Amino acid sequence: MTAHRILSWSPSAVVFDCDGTLMDTERHWQEARNITFRIFGLKPPAGFADRAKGVHYTECGALMAQETGKPDLGEDMADTLLGTFTRLVDQDPVTMPGAAALVRLAAAHRPLAVASNCPRTMVETCLRRAGLLNCFDHVVVAGEQVRPKPEPDVYEVAAGLCGVPPEEALAVEDSLTGMESARRAGLRVIGIGQRPPGPDAEKADLWVASLADPELLTWAHSQFGA
């Protein structure tokens, strides 16, 4: 177990994923994927939701097209996916359990950043509507100069903007894709969700069921409390 790498340590900065970590948007991505498949008259392949979790929307569109035998539709499916997701989130933005309290506590004592595969406008709109955008010093998203997760770029850039080396920063993630990105960048990682079996479990140093986990909150108050 590597939980001591978090619980016996004090990070100099914290970098949060957004989708599924701060904002309860994974259900919107799932619905948007299903709607997109229906629009194109296609059926979701078995287990597709697990393979798509945390994947950049352009790559997800390409994957949707590939796995349904329609590779030429990748760009159109990606555009439809993003547009559908945007409408769903705008109708129902919800924070994940414990997210708002932890962000506000940490923001009072450490530089914070967001590292996301989503478009900047989407991330900032979600966080603004949740009343959390002002808690973050930086928002880093995948783009032309920053490769999407699982590449390490978004986390490397986020740590740098916070003014700390990656090894002094903590990543908070809910997807294995994002955890791999943070790990490759050199950050220590808190994974949200059920600890998976096998090698994937090593992608996070500490696994918690949610950001409202009592052990996590005790640690956070010891590190970030007044």
Blueprint (SSEs and pairs):
Elements: H1 4-7, E1 13-16, H2 26-39, H3 48-52, H4 57-67, H5 74-91, H6 99-107, E2 112-116, H7 120-129, E3 138-141, H8 153-161, E4 169-173, H9 176-185, E5 188-192, E6 206-208, H10 214-224
Parallel strand pairs: 1-2, 1-4, 2-3, 4-5, 5-6
Name its key features.
2 domains, 6 strands, 226 residues, six-stranded parallel β-sheet, Rossmann fold, globular, alpha/beta
Quick structural summary:
The protein has two domains: 4-24 and 94-224, Rossmann fold (3-Layer(aba) Sandwich); 26-91.
What does it look like?
The protein has 226 residues and is of the alpha/beta class. It folds into two domains: 4-24 and 94-224, HAD superfamily/HAD-like (Rossmann fold, 3-Layer(aba) Sandwich); 26-91. Helices cover 45% and strands 12% of the residues. It is built from ten helices and six strands; from the N terminus they run H-E-H-H-H-H-H-E-H-E-H-E-H-E-E-H. The protein has helices at residues 4-7, 26-39, 48-52, 57-67, 74-91, 99-107, 120-129, 153-161, 176-185, 214-224, and strands at residues 13-16, 112-116, 138-141, 169-173, 188-192, 206-208. A six-stranded parallel sheet has the order 3-2-1-4-5-6, with helices on both faces. The longest helix is centred in the middle third of the chain and has 18 residues, at 74-91. The protein is globular, with a radius of gyration of 17 Å. The two termini are 30 Å apart.
Largest sheet: 6 strands, parallel
Q: What would the CATH topology of the largest domain be?
A: Rossmann fold
What is the H/E string? HEHHHHHEHEHEHEEH
How does CATH name the architecture of the largest domain?
A: 3-Layer(aba) Sandwich
DSSP helix fraction? 40-55%
Q: What is the number of helices?
A: 10
CATH superfamily grouping of the largest domain: HAD superfamily/HAD-like
CATH class of the largest domain, anyone? Alpha Beta
What count of domains describes the coordinates? Answer: 2
Oligomer: single chain
DSSP, total strands: 6
Please tell me what the overall shape is. Answer: globular
How do the strands line up in the largest sheet?
3-2-1-4-5-6
Query: How confident overall, as mean pLDDT?
Result: 94
